[in-house]
Amino acid sequence: MPVRVPWVTNARHSLSLILAIPVDLPRRTGRYRGRMRIDTAQGPAEVTLDATGDPAFLLVLTHGSNGGVDAADLLAVREVALGLGGAVARVLQPFRAAGRRAPGSPVRQDAAWLQVVEALRGRFGDVPLVQGGRSNGARVACRTARAAGAAGVVALAFPLAPPGRPDRSRARALRAAGVEVLVVNGDRDPFGVPDPADAAEVVVLPGERHDLNRNPAAVGAAVEPWLRRWTARAPVPGGRAS
């Protein structure tokens, strides 16, 4: 039976944690999954959390403007992060939780995102924060990285420019992130592919379009060595940390 634990983080926002799993699961396996609702100024965000009792880092991921947190590339990155001993929070932003397809004002979207990240950091303490997302979510992660205190950004399917409008490049958002950004794009993405000079690393996957769902394992493989820098407990064969 689900267990609901109210948790007020501060006067500005509140959080509820819903564990739809046995409460003793972390003691049995060292890994658990939960769902959170975080109230922001733009409405509630919904968070799906996969974690261990002592994570090496926190990875916060989000979706595109018309997507959800179960996108194939997000799930592939989640599995890699969990294998490295990280905690992963997949955030359904307030506009999507309310059923809208358009994120609205970037200023308001970013403010809500920072409230979500603040609540999550309050839960996990002083572990390295890496944030990221796909498409519009990648833009949010870049725009807010400095304010969130992120150590790095994972930008999946970064939408460089609207299709057919290369003159409206968004490369500046990558360069202005203030932290190292890893970009993973497909070579057939109609939104284009960032230049290698625009990020710390740009990985281009052959045959992939904007959805990055042809070979999700390749997305995970591209992200794995980059995420590994934030864990001192890299897994070894047999499943135990080194």
Automatic annotation (TrEMBL):
InterPro entries: AB_hydrolase_fold, KANL3/Tex30_Abhydrolase, NSL3/Tex30
Record carries keyword Cell wall biogenesis/degradation: no
Domain KANL3/Tex30 alpha/beta hydrolase-like: 58-196
An annotated Gene Ontology molecular function: hydrolase activity
UniProt-listed Pfam families: Abhydrolase_11 (PF20408)
Keywords: Hydrolase
PANTHER family, per database record: TESTIS DEVELOPMENT PROTEIN PRTD, TESTIS-EXPRESSED PROTEIN 30
Name assigned to this protein: Alpha/beta hydrolase
Native source species: Actinomadura keratinilytica
